[in-house]
Specification:
Pathway: Carbohydrate degradation; glycolysis; D-glyceraldehyde 3-phosphate and glycerone phosphate from D-glucose: step 2/4; Carbohydrate biosynthesis; gluconeogenesis. The protein is 46% helix and 11% strand. The protein is α/β, with parallel strands linked by helices. The strands form three sheets. A six-stranded mixed sheet has the order 1-2-13-12-10-11, sandwiched between helices. The chain has a five-stranded parallel sheet with strand order 6-5-7-8-9, with helices on both faces. It starts with a helix and ends with a helix. The structure holds 6-O-phosphono-alpha-D-glucopyranose (G6P).
Length: 535
């Protein structure tokens, strides 16, 4: 019997060259190839997936037991096999009283306690009750962290700027002294709170930046610098070693992956910026998406369908990348956030069991806020030699009602792009345009070729009412679960990240060589580069 992958491949080959627009001969196309959940709409009708392909994809999800794997995650089973850990970021936003036992212990009371501690602290800083060494209210917060201890808060704080009513938040991630220097330069240590965020509290970039920031505080405040510090980590022994007092440390457990951690203490800058009540709305949005993911049938399940479209594009159409295109300037950091979420989770070449994968896994994820991207790389999307499935995000309403003209233009541009990608412009139309411009003969042919758009390029559009804490929570959780669905189908561990280790080890060994120690044993390229960089 043919396996589903073969059947999918055959479906694809048979339909090769069929215009996506022809699929709309089916008047039900939009309804069947879109899904709504709690105000969100995901339209994937502008893809080459037809009814038979969708049925096969749904069968694939069933054969791969996506639902069973999902339930195992929510139950707290140790699905992160290589690190022997549960995966329970969903528990941070569950708001649920039913016991959830991990390692013989109900984790719910601890989650509630930490959330309460975050609220007390954030509330205190925001009201001025927790004051600076000089007795004033903090005006600025600097979050020092990298990867999962940076990208979530950076993305969400920026996304939710209309809700900011707390201290200004700044972020330092890169070990490049330029970033911390540029950040601290514009701040006053006497009114600045520094949060050191690191799950492991060993990450060299964060530890180096933390030391620099602590010295900066100490130079201005002496022994009182401690009252301007807080930490977020799973390694409470290490935070104590840095001299951060325990009531300023917000812990979390190792069953929260770094790139899934903004729902707990790593989200402290978000709570400081928008306040505990709005932070709860962020959690509520994610919780609603969790409930949808757990309860909706596969046919109407947004993360499942989004994941299946991803599988179709990656494994059946063999497109190596996907573009994230938010028509929402406040989501400008979403592509960077999703790069870590998706590529660190699913950029794997071996299965959960340690065998080489038979087919491609996670694609390259990249993107930029629309409309800026239109004036940069969309040329390639429309007329380049690569096919790049595009994922548009756009809201019905904006936070700027007095600037309605802007939002109308934004929406029109978003829809124009998915339409142009799908429909393209035929050679006949292009010839007519060239003729109207006065070109004839060979020149008309060439001018028409420049103006021809092949079309038939797939896209999905995620539409949401307005970018609020609630809808942002829904959107992030949607993408988390989409990554989960794809990883479950590929049979990989989406929750480890061994691929980042080798570079870290080699960097530690190279530091003395950069400082002048012998580089003997290194390859000739590295030796020559050390010499050049030491000059
Ligand atoms: O939070 P930390 O322990 O400092 O880790 C920060 C980041 O660095 C690591 O190298 C991982 O690749 C990321 O998954 C992680 O988010």
């Amino acid at each position: 019997m043919k396996d589903i992958w073969t059947k999918l491949q055959e479906n694809h080959s048979t339909a090769e060259g069929r215009p996506i627009i022809s699929l709309f001969d089916d008047p039900q196309r939009f309804d069947r190839f879109s899904v709504e959940a709690d105000g969100l709409l995901l339209d994937f009708s502008k893809t080459s997936i037809d009814g038979a392909a969708l049925d096969l994809l749904l069968e694939l999800a069933e054969v791969r037991d996506v639902a069973g794997q999902r339930d195992a995650m929510f139950r707290g089973e140790r699905i992160n096999r290589s690190e022997d850990r549960a995966v329970l970021h969903t528990a941070l936003r569950a708001g649920d009283d039913e016991p959830l036992v991990v390692d013989g212990e109900d984790v719910r009371p601890g989650i509630r306690k930490t959330l309460q501690a975050m609220e007390d602290f954030a509330g205190g800083i925001r009201s001025g009750r927790i004051a600076t060494a000089g007795g004033a209210a903090f005006t600025d917060v600097v979050n020092i962290g990298i990867g999962g201890s940076d990208l979530g808060p950076v993305m969400a704080v920026r996304a939710l700027s209309p809700y900011h009513n707390g201290p200004r938040c700044h972020f330092v991630s890169n070990v490049d002294g330029a970033q911390i220097s540029d950040t601290l330069h514009k701040l006053d240590p006497r009114s600045t709170l520094v949060i050191i965020a690191s799950k492991t509290f060993t990450t060299i970039e964060t530890m180096t930046n933390a030391e620099t920031a602590i010295s900066w505080l100490k130079n201005a405040l002496g022994d009182e610098a401690d009252s301007h510090l807080a930490a977020v980590s799973t390694a409470l022994d290490k935070t104590a070693g840095m001299g951060i007092s325990s009531e300023r440390v917000f812990g979390f457990a190792d069953w929260v992956g770094g790139r899934y951690s903004l729902w707990g203490p790593v989200g402290l800058p978000i709570m400081l910026a928008i306040g505990p009540a709005e932070f709860h709305n962020l959690l509520a949005g994610a919780r609603a998406m969790d409930t949808h993911f757990v309860t909706a049938s596969a046919q109407g399940n947004m993360p499942v369908l989004m994941g299946l479209v991803g599988i179709w594009h990656r494994n059946i159409c063999r497109y190596p990348t996907r573009a994230i295109l938010p028509y929402d300037q406040r989501l400008a950091k979403l592509p960077a956030y999703l790069q870590q979420l998706d590529m660190e989770s699913n950029g794997k070449r071996v299965s959960n069991g340690g065998d080489l994968l038979a087919r491609g896994s996670g694609p390259v994820v990249w993107g930029e806020a629309g409309t800026n991207g239109q004036h940069a790389f969309y040329q390639l999307l429309h007329q380049g030699t690569e096919m790049i499935p595009a994922e548009f995000l756009v809201s019905s309403r904006s936070h700027e009602p007095s600037l309605q003209e802007h939002h109308d233009l934004l929406k029109a541009n978003c829809l124009a792009q998915s339409e142009a990608l799908m429909l393209g412009r035929s050679r006949e139309q292009a010839l007519e345009i060239s003729a109207a411009l006065g070109y004839t003969g060979e020149e008309q042919r060439a001018q028409a070729a420049y103006r021809t758009f092949p079309g038939n390029r797939p896209s999905m559009t995620l539409a949401y009412p307005l970018l609020t804490p609630y809808s942002l929570g829904q959107i992030i959780a949607l993408y988390e679960h989409r990554v989960f669905v794809e990883g479950a189908i590929w049979g990989i561990n989406s929750f480890d990240q061994w691929g980042v280790e080798l570079g870290k080890e080699l960097a530690s060994a190279l530091v003395p060589m950069i400082k002048g120690a012998s580089a003997e044993g290194k390859d000739p390229s590295t030796i020559s580069l050390i010499r050049k960089l030491s000059a």
